[in-house]
Amino acid sequence: MSSLRKPQPVPRRDFLGAAALMTCGATLGLATVGMARLPFPAVIAGESSKIKIGRPDDIAMGEERWVPSARAFVFRDKDGVHAISGVCTHLGCIVSRAPTGFACPCHGSRFGPQGEVTKGPAPSALPWLEISLAPDGQLVVDVESRTATGSRFRV
Amino acid sequence: MVASIENTPSALKTFAENLKRAPIRLRESVFRHDWPDTDRTRSQAVFANFFLHLHSTRIHERTLRFWSTCGMGVGALANFVLLTVTGILLMVYYKPSTDLAYQSIKDITFIVPTGQFIRNIHRWSAHMMVVFVLLHMVRVFYTSAYKSPREFNWLVGMALLVLTLGLSFTGYLLPWDQLAYWAITIGSNIAQSPREVTDAIGVTRFFDPGGLQKRILLGADTVGQEAVTRFYLLHVMVLPLFMIGLIGVHFWRVRKDGGLARPADEPGTPVRLLTGQTVSFAPAPEKTYGLMALVRGKTPQVDRGPEHTITAWPNAFYAEMAVLMATCTICLVLALIADAPLKEIANPGVPENPAKAPWYFLGLQELVSYSAFMGGIGIPTLVLLGLGLIPFLDSEADTGGLWPTSLTHRLLIAGSAFFSAFVVIALLAFTIRFGWLRSWFPHIPQLIIIVLNPGTLLVALFAEFSLCIMNRYNSTRAGAVALFTCFIVAFVILTYVATVHRGPNWSFYWSRSQWPIH
Q1: What residue of B is the nearest CA neighbor of A123?
Q2: Given CB 3.0 to 4.6 Å as the disulfide criterion, which of A7, B27, B36, B239 pairs with B41?
Q3: Stretch A64-91: mean pLDDT, rounded?
Q4: B355/A93 touch (CB, cutoff 8 Å), yes or no
Q5: Are residues A67 and A108 in the same domain?
Q6: Is the Cβ pair A40, B370 closer than 8 Å?
Q7: Which residues of chain A does B182 touch, with a Cβ-Cβ cutoff of 8 Å?
């Protein structure tokens, strides 16, 4: 005689109960996933990341200027125009120009003249921003972009 | 006599009679008993009333001694009530929009009758609530009140601490002034700071929890209208709902876990109550009590509370009212003395210098100035984890309820405090004087700084110290005391340095008068 017990059938009541419970769970789970989708809009509110900063001729040779709308420092030298982001890579404060480069007021990060970190908690250098020319002849800075340190836009 | 002849009175007459008795019957349907004026009826009233039922009808005499609780828990609740009331009043005028928020706060300050006063109260009781909640935690820890069976309530209490801080943080943005804008910019970038780690190991493109956290907080890439809407929603709706729910669970568990933690009863000297009455206690009989045992009269327990308990009405109610009144008084005085600040309207182009968070976050801000991720997320998570695990890692049996009295115990606390103060001050002084890794090796990988910075060094030293103490005293409680004391002292010192000695560009200054022109 086999000592194996005959598999017991699952009582109908238990099966239905478990099925109902799982249905509830699945419904709630799916609803939660759906709701978690809501706080992330398909289009991010806010300004365009591409900011016009004026015609190349408006910036004098050797000039540097702070462009508040782009939150960036724009420089012009003999090689061309370049822009360095003024948003601290640590926690997003606006850096100011210091004799040795840039200084952040919030947590004491210091950057060299090329934007490299020299002191403080900033995890990375101030990014150089991509510059292009708009059809109307104005320079455009893309504040979301990154370009290699030292690269210039020839004008 | 018409009425005596007719068996059934006319409907009109019944109606008139009912109308006359309506107020009385309404009252009876609500309260179901007369004004209670004996211990028995009062106990029944407490038992039968939804709100009073929060208390058991009798509470232990020790519960009402000042040094048992210092009134901190009830005081925190009192602040929450104050905040709810003043918050609703402020909502009458406040407009959660970037265009209107600042002006509406100005209206509240300058035009609305009592507006500024109400805002002052709201601000001061928010500060006080943080203080009370922290002191409450300190009290519970040092009186060992977190021990079995109260482990879970310790966790609920920590959730309430986090909610309290969350409510403060979300409220900070709403005035839309410079302070608000920059504190939230920093705060949301701290939420994004796991990117510091994912960037360092180069996986941000595939796995970016930091960006996700910032996105869900701000709804955009920068602090703007979406952020104001979300913070408003969190501040006035989501967090308070969680708060109320968890406060309910917290209080319910206090009752279910047997009331305030306390040592075993010892028949002793009579106790003078707040009501002026003096009671002495009979040794506890070995039986359980129903409400019948509360009858005042000729029983073996005449004028003696069984098992060192006294009636909640009026004794506990007096005490709670006293704490409520004291809290309100302190808050009103502070609100009369100092106005809630309102800086210039938010300007995304010019940061405050120095941009400081509210004082209870300044300890963290000091740590953030070494590494955003470690200071803002890594270390707070470790501290919360450590605090939460305390009741489970230190399971030495103790009824709790007593402050440490033995010389060994007190020396341990003093020693830990001294160790912590020494280490924190030494490390701060060293960092301020000589800088940290980045100043010496500008090209050092960020990952090394994340792992090795003054903040992580402190945590490691405290953990090591705590393990040494645990081994030396051969007691997990001793280890817990050492660790908790270290963290509290470090929190106080870091908060102090960041509040008083950090100036423009987060540089160190002995006093404000040394700040440079900026």
Answers
A1: B446
A2: B36
A3: 90
A4: yes
A5: yes
A6: no
A7: 93, 106
Using H for helix, E for strand and C for coil, what is the string for B207-274?
CCHHHHHHHHHHCECCCCHHHHHHHHHHHHHHHHHHHHHHHHHHHHHHHHCCCCCCCCCCCCCCEECC
Residue B32 · residue B48 · CB < 8 Å: yes
Domain that holds residue A42: 9-46
User: How many residues are given for chain B?
Assistant: 518
Which H or E run contains B72? helix B72-91
- List of chain A residues whose C-beta atoms are within 8 Å of the C-beta of residue B368: 91, 107, 121
Size of interface A-B (CB pairs under 8 A): 96
pLDDT tens-digit series, residues B246-261: 999 999 999 888 888 8
**Total domain count for chain A?**
2
Do residue A21 and residue A35 come from a single domain?
yes
Residues B349 and A67: their CA atoms lie apart, in Å, by: 10
Cβ distance of B372 and A123 shorter than 8 Å: yes
Residue B251's nearest CA partner among B411, B121, B18, B56 is B56
Are the Cβ atoms of B219 and A108 closer than 8 angstroms?
Answer: no
B281 min Cα distance to partner chain A (Å): 53
Residues A91, B372: C-beta atoms closer than 8 Å: yes
**For residue A107, which residues of chain B lie inside 8 Å, CB to CB?**
365, 368-369, 506
| Residue B163 Cα to chain centre, angstroms | 8
Band (pLDDT 50/70/90 cuts) for residue B305 is low
Residues A111 and A72 reside in one and the same domain: yes
Facing B506 at nearest CB: one of A39, A45, A108: A108
A82 & A141 share domain = yes
Q: Which of B73, B504, B496, B78 is nearest to B325 (CA)?
A: B78
**Could you say which of A68, A118, A123 has the minimum Cβ distance to residue B442?**
A118
**Which residues, at least 6 apart from A20, have a Cβ–Cβ distance to it below 8 Å?**
none
> Are residues A26 and A64 part of one domain?
no
Domains of chain B: 2-50 (no CATH), 65-263+303-352 (1.20.810.10), 362-518 (no CATH)
Within this chain, do residues A84 and A23 fall inside the same structural domain, yes or no? no
- CA geometry: angle at B209 spanning B204 and B213, to 5°? 130
What 8-state DSSP symbol labels residue A90? T
Compute the average pLDDT of residues A11-24: 94
* Contact predicate B384/B137, CB 8 Å: no
Residue A54 and residue A13 share a domain? no
Interchain pair B369, A118: CB under 8 A: no
Highest mean pLDDT among B282-291, B357-366, B456-465: B456-465
The interface predicted TM-score of the complex, written ipTM, equals 0.85
Interval B148-162: pLDDT, tens: 889 999 999 999 999
- CB contacts, 8 Å: B211 with chain A: none
Quote the crossing angle between the two packed helices B115-142 and B317-337, to the nearest 10°: 130
